[in-house]
Amino acid sequence: MGVRDMRRRPFLFALLVILSLSVSPLIAQHKVDGKSAHSFIKYLAADSLQGRKSGLAGGEKAAEWIAQKFKEFGLEPAGDKGTYFQHFTVSFFNIDGGVALKVISPVKAREFVYREDYRVARYSGGGKAAGELVFVGYGISEPDKEFDEYQGIDVKGKVVLILSGAPQNDYTRWKEESTPSYKVKTAVARGAKGVLFFPNPRETDRRRRYIRLDKEDYRTNFLVFSIEDRVLNFILKGTGKRLSLLQEEIDKELKPKSFPTGRKTELKARITFDPKRKTKNVLGKITGTHPELKEQVIVLGAHMDAQGVSVDKEVYNGADDNASGTAVVMEIARVMKLNDLRPKRTILFAAWAAEEQGLLGSRHYAEHPVFPVEKTVLNLNMDMVGLGDGKVRFSGYYFAPEMWKDITTTLSQQELDMVVPNRGGPGGSDHTPFLTRGVPAFFLFSTGSHPDYHQPEDDSHLIKPEILGLTCQVVYGVTEAIADMEKELIIADRLPRYLYRIANLVNLRSVALDDAIGQPEKFVDMGIDIQLTEINVSTFNQPPSIGDMLIHQIDSAFQKLSGKEVKGAVVTEPNQVSSNVRVPKTSFLLGIGEVPVIKGDLATLRMAHKMGARFLTLGKCDKVWVCAEKGLLEEGKKAIHTMNEIGMLIKLQDFSPRILKEVLAESKEPILVSKAKVLDEGQGTKIDEEDVKAITEKKGIIALALGPDDDLEVFIKQIEYLKKIEGLNSIAIYPLWRDGTGIEDVDQLFRLTIALKEKGYDDEEIEKILGGNFLQLLQKIIAPPRVEMAGRPF
Fold first, then answer.
1. Backbone CA torsion sign across 427, 432, 433, 438
2. pLDDT for 739 beyond 60
3. Which one, out of 59, 123, 234, 440, has a CA that is 20 to 30 A from the CA of 567?
4. Predicted model pTM
């Protein structure tokens, strides 16, 4: 080779480098493929894996196979000691079979059908239990509270029949005693051999109707079943007893109505319980390339487990739930490695174990993260993405609005049209352990029908590859774009922000009905979950009579504050709030703003309540019920008795010390004392310690007045003062905001949340203060009418 050729070498080399760099983006990129993802499901959802229950052979075999695939794709191991596995133990519980429930009456014996008529409670013991059935009401034994449903009743060697929930739905007074754990422990202590739980028909919160035991409740030979209507009906038939009447008498008199039924029962179940069963998550990663941003991580996750095999030996293959989500994670990992993706941030691919046993795999990771939670930018959780109508529900924007905005900028218009945004929230899947630690976490779920959810028919041949491909496409694009964003994506105070948003935020500063009707969307935009809304004299246009005025205004509220197109809904029962929050919509609680609205007429008061008004503001001198010189008048006392009787909340505001004491003396039910303070510092009407104790003894609420410029250190002193006297169950916040409607400066409540967290208040305490306590008060005061259910003669 000549000198000239030698001189050309560096030039040619440089040219080749430049060409390779410029051409590489033009090389066809591999695309995610729904059919490829479906091929993974065919293996995971095969009968040979026996339902992939974590802790059993099939579940562990699935984990091994996924790890092998991660290795084939070229993912780096992200588990323990250079492996793809993150090992941990679970409290493993399995119903192996041999389940039976028989009830023997003097007339005949009847065997009931598992799942249709009864269920074995998780962490029930196994074996056999036979004996007489004894009804013990709510199963509470508390002589110190003058309520012992076991007094004078012998249950030794017998099976007790227990109603779930709390007497009078009072979960404040009976917080511990209302739990299944307490009831089981009490039955064991009394010598019983087993428990049949029946769901409380008057319970408005569906979550409390389910029987959930803890692993600590497991006792080897103590059986715990939950039963349905047919079983209870058969037990009580011929006894002359009806559950509805028994429960009504217990709740009204708070006196036990326990009795031996004269029926016998036989319970059987084969159970496996292992408090330290080994299992594992599967973790692989693509390490980021940016010198600083690589320390941050995006977690793509899905649970790989299913429900195993039923007592009838049917295999729950879990193709849609959730081999589909696992397959999406795998397919994205496969294609990213094929494309030699080199993201700035690290991407972690996770197949979680034991989701069906209580989100145990993702929870273990969140408690023992490979990458610090504080450095986790985003979690995308895929669960049930194999069926539906061609769109993907993206749940979580409310809790991470900044991240959601970034996500939407990464999507094409076509992809945006495929995505259905949803408020989101904790519960139900593996995004929860991330979300509850402040990490932006989104739950992806294909919209439309999932008919075989938790059924043995959930098989791979029903899965739609095109739905898988859609989810893969959206998640791949979002992940790649977020991983490469240059800007800072981890915002300050993520955990307090979550606590603030998850709380049922209540604005106890009432707004006029006209203000609410004028702009209902404003309340949702400000994050207000429950808004007190008052009907006042000034809102009336002088219809012919006071009754007509109320009918007109309340009807207007229901018409204009509810409906599909309105970001609000008038509520009349506490349990309606949770469904509105999910939409999201603000729940408007209607009330009467002042006594002159009804001219002190009790018949009008009762009519307003029947139409939907749920509180009345009392305190000012109206010379009808309250007088500055004479205090609470006789008509005012009658009004309080009426409100107690019909279930209307008394909101005391702008009151004198005398009026407060007289209302407390007269009302048998708890009241809401608003715009208050308990120390000399602060804003609102001062309440002395004697009145504080009187309010809290009746389970009432003291709404502390918080101004937009208040020193939070000073304000928290009031909370600390009340906490020392009565705990935190009677505290709420009354905002004194500048804007006329009282919702413009909601950031002050967020700042309070940060300050409380810094002071060491736990998540539950903060949620109580921001709104949970008020919801408990509503539950007690305005719970729905107790009516006999058609078709339930017991």
1. negative
2. no
3. 440
4. 0.86
